[in-house]
Write a structure and sequence with these properties.
The complex is a heterodimer of chains A (293) and B (368). Chain A is mainly alpha-helical. In chain A, 74% of the residues lie in helices and 0% in strands. In chain A, helix 4 runs antiparallel to helix 11. The C terminus of chain A is likely disordered. Chain B has two domains: 228 residues, 3-Layer(aba) Sandwich (Rossmann fold), CATH 3.40.50; 136 residues, no CATH class. Chain B has a six-stranded mixed β-sheet, sandwiched between helices. Chain B has a five-stranded antiparallel β-sheet with strand order 13-12-11-14-21. In chain B, strands 2-1-4-5 form a four-stranded antiparallel β-sheet, covered by helices on one side. In chain B, strand 18 and strand 19 form a beta hairpin. In chain B, helix 2 crosses helix 3, helix 2 runs parallel beside helix 4 and helix 3 packs across helix 4. The longest helix of chain B is centred in the middle third of the chain and has 18 residues. The chains are: A mainly alpha (293), B alpha+beta (368). Chains A and B meet through helix 9 and helix 10 of A and strand 6 of B. The structure holds adenosine-5'-triphosphate (ATP) and magnesium ion.
Chain lengths: 293, 368
C-alpha cells in the first residue's frame, strides 16, 4: 500500500511552516547558550569590544581561571547545591502529605483549605509584608528561612492533589482490604502510582531552587550563605566597577562579562546533566496531572 | 454458627435509601451469589460486608462477631474487584504478597504463601511480570491470588468476570468454581449475569430495588419462583407471564387468558388453594415447556407467530396470544418445520405458574 495521498498539499505546506517555526524557536533558544559559551572562552577585550557574536574570539580560559580560583564561587556553588537538594526534599516532604490530605474526601474543611491554597495562586501579600514576616520569624539571613520559607507553592500542591484525586478509588479500597494503614496507603500505593507527577514537581522545585535569586538576595546578608545567582549578580554589579577590571579593560584576558559568562556556563552544567533523565517523566507528568479519568 | 449474618441492613445515601433492610444468613463454606438488575444494591450490600461502606442501620456479623464498627482490614475478608485493582508498579509476586507484606508477615511465610497461591492459580511462570504485561484472564487470577494468600474467612467478589470476553468468562467461571471446591471458603459473589449465578451458587439471592426477592438454590429459584420478578429474571428467555383471570370449573380453578380465543387452562394442584374466582393473575409459562407439534385438541394456546429466531439446536418463536407477547423455545433437531405457520402451542400443564396480578406473588402453597 502506498500512502501517497495520505497528506494533501495543504497538509504538506502546513508541515513546512511548522518545521520553519520550530527551527526559529530552536535557534532563538539555543543562541543565548552558544553566545554565553563563546563569550566565556573569548578574551575579555574581544567581548567588551563587541567582537563576539556567535563563535569565540581569541580563545582563552582566563575567565574560568579567575572564577575557579575564587573561593566565594565555590561557596556559592555549594550553597546552591544545598538549597536545591534540601529545598526540594523539604518541598516534597511537606507538599506530598499535604496534597494527599487535601485529596481525601473525608478531610474536614477540605473546601476551605483548597480555596485558601488556590487563593495564593493569584494573590500574595506583597514584598514588604513578606519581608517583615520573615524578619519577625527570625528567618532573615538564615538558610532555614530560604529552605523552609519557599518550600510550598500552590501550583505544585494543586498538581499533586489533582493527581492523587485521579487515582482510581479501587486501588485505595483494595489496599484497605489488604490491610494497609493510612501511611502505607500513601507510601506504597499513592506515591508509586503518582511517580510522574512527583518527578515533575521535584523538577519544578529543582529548577526554582537552582535559579533562586530574588529572595536570596533580599533575605540573605552573609556572603557565606548566598547562592550562585546572587554571587553572579555581585560579580556583575560589584566587580564591573572595581579596580580589578578598571585598569585593564583593553588588555586583560578576562572582563566581568567573560567571568559572568563562565559562571553561567558552570551553573548550567548540572541542569544539563539531570534534565535528560527527568524529561522522560516531564511531559507525561504534565499531561496526567491535567486529565482526570 | 453462621459465617456471615446480615440483619435488617439498611443503606442510605443522604435521604435516599438504596438498601431497605436486608437479612441474610450465610453458612461456612457456602457460595452465595447476589444477583439482580443494575442498581438494585448488590455492590452496596457486598461493600457493607467488606466495610467499604458504612451501614446506616442493622447489623453485620462475620464469624459470630459484630463488625459494623470494624475496619475492613480487621474483618478477615478479602475482595476481588471488577477492575482487579492490581498495583501497576508491582510485579505479580509483589501484588499477591501485598496483603501479607503490609501486615508485616515474615519473609519466609510470604514467599511460601505466594508460591502456593501461584501454583493453585497457574501463575508460577508469571510471577516477575508487571500487570500491564498480562492478559485479562491472568490479571483476574492475580486478583484472586491476592485474596487467597490471606486465607480470609470470607471471599467477596464484585462482578469479577464482567471485564472478560465471553469465552474467557466461561473458562474463569469454571476456575472459580474449582477453586471454591478446593478451598471450601465462604464466598459472596455479585453478578448481574444469571448464568454465572446459576452455575456458581450454592444459593442464589435475587435482589431488586434494594430488597431481596427470593433466596434459594439455583434449581429452587428456577422451578419455584416466589414472584413474577424472579420468574422473569431467572431463565433465558424469561418465563412468559400472561394476564389471565381465574374461573372455577367443574374440575377446579382454570385460568382464562385475557383476549385469547382459547379454552381456559386448568392450573396445577399446588396453586389451587389460593386461587379465587374472578382473581386477576399472571399465568407463567416457561418458553421451554411449549410444543409446536401438539394437536389443538390438547391443552394449549392459539397463537400467531411473528418472528422466528433459529439458534441451531433450538429456535425462538416470538408471537402473540390474544395480543399478549409470548416466546416459545422449541427444538429443531427432530425436524424443522415452518414455524411461522404454527397456530397452536401445546402447553405442559404441570409446568404452569400462577402469580397474583396485584402483588406479583406466587399462589403456590408451601407444601411437600
Ligand atoms: N455514593 C453514592 N451516592 C448515592 N447513591 C449511590 C451511591 N452509590 C450507589 N448509589 C445508588 O445505590 C443504588 C445501588 O447501587 P449498587 O452499586 O449497589 O448497584 P448494583 O446492584 O451493584 O448495580 P450494578 O449491577 O450496576 O453494579 C443505585 O441506585 C446507585 O445509584
Ligand atoms: Mg455493582
Amino acid at each position: 500500500m502506498s500512502n501517497f495521498n495520505l497528506y494533501s498539499r495543504g497538509d504538506r505546506i502546513f508541515g513546512w511552516i511548522n518545521a520553519a517555526l520550530i527551527a526559529l524557536v530552536v535557534v532563538s533558544t539555543l543562541y543565548p547558550f552558544i553566545y554565553i559559551f563563546s563569550a566565556s572562552i573569548s578574551s575579555g577585550a574581544a567581548v567588551t569590544a563587541g567582537r563576539v557574536t556567535l563563535l569565540p574570539v581569541d580563545v582563552t580560559l582566563a575567565a574560568y581561571e579567575r572564577v575557579l580560583s575564587d573561593k566565594m564561587f565555590w561557596t556559592a556553588y555549594a550553597n546552591t547545591f544545598f538549597y536545591t537538594i534540601a529545598g526540594t526534599i523539604t518541598s516534597l516532604l511537606i507538599m506530598i502529605p499535604g496534597a494527599y490530605a487535601l485529596s481525601r474526601r473525608r478531610l474536614r474543611g477540605r473546601m476551605i483549605f483548597n480555596l485558601a491554597i488556590a487563593f495564593t495562586l493569584w494573590f500574595n501579600a506583597g514584598m514588604i509584608p513578606f519581608f517583615l514576616n520573615f524578619r519577625d520569624l527570625g528567618l532573615l539571613d538564615s538558610r532555614t528561612g530560604i529552605v523552609v520559607g519557599f518550600a510550598v507553592t500552590a501550583f505544585n500542591v494543586i498538581l499533586l492533589r489533582n493527581f492523587f484525586e485521579a487515582v482510581p478509588k479501587s486501588f485505595e479500597e483494595a489496599a484497605k482490604m489488604d490491610g494497609a494503614n493510612e501511611l502505607q496507603l500513601l507510601w506504597k500505593v499513592f506515591i508509586p502510582l503518582s511517580r510522574p507527577a512527583i518527578v515533575t514537581v521535584a523538577l519544578f522545585c529543582v529548577v526554582m531552587r537552582w535559579n533562586g535569586y530574588f529572595w536570596a538576595m533580599v533575605l540573605l546578608r552573609g556572603e557565606d550563605k548566598i547562592p550562585l545567582q546572587v554571587y553572579l549578580k555581585k560579580i556583575i554589579v560589584d566587580l564591573s566597577a572595581s579596580d580589578e577590571f578598571a585598569g585593564s579593560l583593553l588588555t586583560s584576558q578576562f572582563s566581568f562579562e567573560t567571568v559572568s559568562a563562565a559562571i553561567m556556563v558552570a551553573s548550567i552544567i548540572p541542569v544539563l546533566l539531570i534534565y535528560p533523565y527527568a524529561q522522560r517523566y516531564f511531559t507525561k507528568g504534565i499531561l496526567l496531572g491535567g486529565v482526570k479519568e | 454458627m453462621s459465617e456471615v449474618e446480615l440483619s435488617e441492613v439498611v443503606k442510605r445515601y443522604g435521604v435516599m435509601e438504596v438498601v431497605h433492610g436486608i437479612s441474610l444468613t450465610i453458612e461456612p463454606g457456602e457460595f452465595v451469589v447476589l444477583v439482580g438488575p443494575s442498581g438494585c444494591g448488590k455492590s452496596t450490600t457486598l461493600r457493607m460486608v467488606a466495610g467499604l461502606e458504612d451501614i446506616s442501620s442493622g447489623t453485620v456479623m462475620i464469624g459470630g462477631r459484630e463488625v459494623s464498627q470494624v475496619a475492613p482490614k480487621d474483618r478477615d475478608v478479602a475482595m476481588v474487584f471488577q477492575n482487579y485493582a492490581l498495583y501497576p508498579h508491582l510485579d505479580v509476586a509483589e501484588n499477591i504478597a501485598f496483603g501479607l507484606r503490609v501486615r508485616h508477615e515474615k519473609r519466609k511465610v510470604i514467599k511460601q504463601a505466594v508460591a502456593e497461591a501461584a501454583e493453585i492459580l497457574g501463575l508460577t511462570e508469571y510471577l516477575k511480570r508487571k500487570p500491564a504485561d498480562l492478559s485479562g484472564g491472568q490479571r483476574q487470577r492475580v486478583a484472586m491470588g491476592r485474596a487467597i494468600v490471606r486465607r480470609p474467612r470470607v471471599f467477596l467478589f464484585d462482578e469479577p468476570l464482567s471485564n472478560l470476553d465471553a469465552k474467557l468468562r466461561t473458562h474463569m467461571r469454571a476456575e472459580i468454581k474449582r477453586l471454591h471446591q478446593r478451598m471450601q471458603s465462604t464466598s459472596i459473589y455479585v453478578t448481574h449475569d444469571q448464568v454465572e449465578a446459576m452455575t456458581l451458587a450454592d444459593r442464589i439471592v435475587i435482589m431488586n430495588g434494594g430488597r431481596i426477592e427470593q433466596v434459594g438454590s439455583p434449581m429452587e429459584v428456577f422451578l419455584e419462583p416466589a414472584n413474577t420478578f424472579v420468574a422473569s429474571f431467572i431463565g433465558s428467555p424469561p418465563m412468559n407471564l400472561l394476564d389471565a383471570t381465574i374461573e372455577i370449573g367443574d374440575a377446579g380453578p382454570l385460568a382464562r387468558i385475557k383476549g385469547a380465543d382459547t379454552a381456559p387452562l386448568p392450573i396445577p394442584d399446588a396453586f389451587r388453594d389460593q386461587a379465587a374466582a374472578g382473581q386477576r393473575v399472571k399465568l407463567g409459562i416457561r418458553p421451554e415447556l411449549m410444543r409446536v407439534d401438539a394437536d389443538p385438541s390438547t391443552p394449549g394456546l392459539a397463537c400467531q407467530i411473528e418472528l422466528v429466531e433459529p439458534l441451531g439446536a433450538e429456535a425462538l418463536l416470538h408471537g402473540e396470544v390474544g395480543r399478549q407477547p409470548i416466546i416459545a423455545k422449541v427444538e429443531t433437531l427432530s425436524g424443522v418445520r415452518d414455524f411461522a405457520a404454527v397456530r397452536w402451542l401445546g402447553v405442559d400443564l404441570s409446568g404452569l405458574h400462577v402469580f397474583d396480578a396485584g402483588s406479583g406473588r406466587s399462589l403456590k402453597t408451601a407444601s411437600a
